Amino acid sequence: MNKTILIKRMKTRRKLHRITLLTTVPLFAFANQPEKETFSRLNQIDALQQQRQQQNQQVQEKILQPQADVHLDTKNYERLTLSNKETPCYPIHHVTLIDYPSEDFSSKSQFQWALNQASQDLKLTLPHCFGGEGLGILMKQIQNRIIEKGYVTTRVVTQEQDLKSGALVLTVIPGKVGDTLVEDNGRVPRFSRLHALTGFTFSKGDLLNVRDMEQSLENLKRVPTAEANFELLPSKTDIGVSDIKISYQQALPFRINLSLDDSGSKSTGQYQVSGTLSIDNIFSANDLFYTSFTHSLKTHNDEKGGRASKNLTFIILSLSAIGPYRLHKPITVIVKKF
């Protein structure tokens, strides 16, 4: 069963903050302590046990929440050069870049930086005698610079003009975001508007940048059981506008992981058994919840009168929160109770 959601209107640009909440409660700390056991030794055992618990927790996080890395290569490796011997050609003393639909030649384009970089790449000095080939090379180099920054639907064109005036005007048609169409291909459709609110880093009317698409896919795919891809479609609304089609699918959101290792000590039990239950998208907000339990197994080689170790990590919640800035590093809040 397919579920299609049309996100017609989004709020202003959103950047995502990732919040991880970890609450760990050690249980059953004591079992037949010798009277002569000092507090110093107890503290050492606690510190070692906490260190092992943190290391195990980091391993669990890597297993349960692998990092989704989405990157599209927009680098152009073609080397373009301008010829100084074109015929026929027109001496150009001034090059202007404007944005469509503006006809005010005095207003600079928001992509002026691309013209500056292209001029440096081509070693362009004015006046320069441009023919048809040279004009095409200049436009292509500007276009390449714009695409490299992720604006893959933005185009550079030239309008009808008299080059005998010595002025060249190039027009940029900014590529913008139209409607967002989401197609849920899962057996049980799970995509909701909350997924879009916490996952998409773009809004209708924004300049379309493929980097926003990559970030949005990473947010949706951050949950291990979810898969997402996007496709750009021409819009029928206006020049330069593209609709975004998101194909989304989530498998069964429940996962169980069991492990046994010998990372413990003789005081707390050398063998440690761990179990983890994780649930993806429990709040439909690209979130991850899991609960884990660690328990030491006592053997005849462990110290008599030692302490049995049990730890219950009962919630780890990873959410995407709306905020005005892009956060590159996760915020980790750790609350411990003893």
What is this structure, in a nutshell?
The chain has 338 residues and is an alpha+beta fold. It has five helices and 15 strands.
Q: What does this molecule look like?
A:
The structure is a single chain. The chain is 21% helix and 35% strand. The strands form four sheets. A six-stranded mixed β-sheet has the order 11-12-13-14-2-15. Helix 2 packs across helix 3. It is built from five helices and 15 strands. The chain has a domain of 84 residues: Ubiquitin-like (UB roll), CATH 3.10.20.310. The C terminus is likely disordered. By secondary structure, it is α+β, with helices and mostly antiparallel strands. GO terms for molecular function: protein transmembrane transporter activity. Keywords: Cell outer membrane, Membrane, Protein transport, Signal, Transmembrane, Transmembrane beta strand, Transport. One of its GO terms (cellular component) is type V protein secretion system complex.
